[in-house]
Design a protein that fits this description.
By secondary structure, the protein is mainly α. Helices cover 59% and strands 0% of the residues. It has helices at residues 5-22, 27-34, 38-46, 55-65. Helix 1 packs parallel to helix 4. The longest helix is centred in the N-terminal third of the chain and has 18 residues, at 5-22. It is globular.
Length: 78
C-alpha cells in the first residue's frame, strides 16, 4: 500500500494529540518537555503545518510522552 506524505503527517499529528491528552498534558506542558514552543506544537496538532516537522521533533515528542516513536505512526480508527 502506498501512502502520500500527507498521510504520515496526519497520522503523526493525530497520535501526538491523542497521547498528549491521554497523559493529561496541556500543549504548553508537552512543548516545555520537548524544548519547543507551544505555538509550534499547536500548529503540528492542528494541521496548519504541512510537512513542517522532523523526525527529530517526533523523537523529542515521543520521549516527552514516554512512548516509543513507533506509536506516533500507528493508524487511528476514525
Amino acid at each position: 500500500m502506498n501512502h502520500n506524505d500527507n498521510y504520515y503527517f496526519e497520522i503523526a499529528r493525530k497520535n501526538i494529540k491523542k497521547h498528549r491528552e491521554e497523559a493529561n498534558l496541556t500543549q504548553q506542558q508537552l512543548a516545555d518537555r520537548c524544548g519547543i514552543t507551544m505555538n509550534y506544537l499547536a500548529k503540528i496538532e492542528s494541521n496548519k503545518m504541512k510537512k513542517g516537522f522532523t523526525i527529530v521533533t517526533l523523537g523529542r515528542i515521543a520521549d516527552a510522552l514516554n512512548i516509543d516513536i513507533r506509536e506516533l505512526f500507528k493508524p487511528i480508527d476514525e
